[in-house]
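R.M. (postdoc): so does anyone remember the format we settled on? I'll just put the C-alpha cells first.
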C-alpha cells in the first residue's frame, strides 16, 4: 500500500510516526528516512534508539528552502539565515546530492525486503523543489515488496504521486 500525507496543515509527520508505533506494536520492522531534517526534531528524541526494529535516518540540510518570489519580505526576514532561496527550477546542487545519498540508502533498505513499513518523511517537499527526480522515485515504488507499506509525507505532493497512491490524506 502506498500512502501519501500532504497538504498545508500540520500533522503529516505526526501521523506517519503514529503509524510507525503501530507497526512496531504489530511486530513489523520500520525504516524511516527524514529528508531535509537534521537530528533535533522532537520525534527523533523519542524514536532514536527506541527499539532495534526501528531504523531512523536523516538526509539533506535542515534549512527551509524556497523558490525566488514565493516568500514575502516578512517571511524572508523571519527565516533570516535559515532559508535558502533559489531560482525556480535550479535548486542548490549540494541539496540535490544530499537527498540522493539518502535516497540510495532508502533503495537498499527497501530492496532488502526486511521492513514492513517504510516512511519517507518530507520526500514530497524534495519532489516539489526538484531535489530528486520523479523517475528515481517511480523506480523505487516499482521495487517495493508486496508486504511493505510505503508512506510519503510532506507538502506539495505532485499529482502523479497522488494518482499512484492507495490512500491520500
Amino acid at each position: 500500500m502506498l500512502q501519501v500525507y500532504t497538504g498545508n496543515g500540520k500533522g503529516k509527520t505526526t501521523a506517519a510516526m503514529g503509524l510507525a508505533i503501530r507497526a512496531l506494536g504489530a511486530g513489523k520492522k520500520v525504516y524511516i528516512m527524514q529528508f531535509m531534517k537534521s537530528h533535533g526534531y522532537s520525534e527523533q528524541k523519542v524514536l532514536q534508539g527506541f527499539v532495534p526494529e526501528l531504523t531512523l535516518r536523516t538526509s539533506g540540510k535542515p534549512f527551509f528552502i524556497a523558490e525566488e518570489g514565493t516568500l514575502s519580505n516578512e517571511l524572508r526576514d523571519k527565516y533570516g539565515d535559515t532559508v535558502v532561496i533559489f531560482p525556480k527550477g535550479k535548486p542548490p546542487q549540494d541539496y540535490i546530492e544530499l537527498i540522493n545519498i539518502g535516497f540510495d540508502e532508502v533503495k537498499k533498505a527497501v530492496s532488502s525486503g526486511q521492513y514492513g513499513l517504510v516512511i519517507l518523511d518530507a520526500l514530497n517537499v524534495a519532489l516539489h523543489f526538484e531535489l530528486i527526480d520523479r523517475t528515481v522515485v517511480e523506480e523505487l515504488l516499482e521495487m517495493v515488496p508486496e508486504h511493505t507499506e510505503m508512506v510519503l509525507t510532506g507538502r506539495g505532493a505532485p499529482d502523479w504521486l497522488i494518482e499512484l497512491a492507495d490512500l491520500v490524506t
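R.M.: ...and that's the designed sequence above, right after the C-alpha cells. Also worth knowing: The mean pLDDT is 89. The two ends are 14 Å apart (CA to CA).
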